[in-house]
Amino acid sequence: MKWGDVDFDRGILVVRRTVQRTVNGLIVKEQPKTDNSRRLVNISPATVDVLRQHQKRQAEEMLKFGLRDIEFIFTNTVGNLMEPRKVNHIFDRIIGKAGIPKIRFHDLRHTHATMLLKQGIHPKIVSERLGHSSIGITLDIYSHVIPSMQREAAVAIDQVLQKDRNTLSR
């Protein structure tokens, strides 16, 4: 991701490229897999604040090396795009220090989706945030969340019907 992909004022992140490591070790910035993969993702004010702090800290650090106008959000110590393996390595260290059971960096994506679904966010919105080509993909991947949502739906309909019964009996 590049700083130009963040609209701080509107709280929007533009997803327009991916970074992959090829067999021969080169990093390639590719177009996302599908049209839906290129998307706008709303980010919270707290996320905007964290990104602003990171941008400021990054600019201060890079200035020590005479570097200005860093385009990438996650860079190595000389301002170049951070390799995906390095991101994973740093994440592993953070998880270890926090005493959290080991998870992959990519698992954060699944955690994000699961948390949204459990909060009752419509699967279509979750699908759009993830860049899935269809809501069916999202539902197939996250169907493990659905059973608890089924129970919650049963309780919710019962509450509505109970209110209706109370209204009718007056």
Automatic annotation (TrEMBL):
It holds the Pfam family Phage_integrase. Keywords: DNA recombination, DNA-binding. It comes from the Bacteria. InterPro entries: DNA_brk_join_enz, Integrase-like_cat_sf, Integrase_catalytic, Tyrosine_recombinase_XerCD. GO terms for molecular function: DNA binding. Residues 1-155 form the Tyr recombinase domain. One of its GO terms (biological process) is DNA integration. Belongs to the 'phage' integrase family. This is Tyr recombinase domain-containing protein. The lineage of its organism: Bacteria, Bacillati, Bacillota, Bacilli, Bacillales.
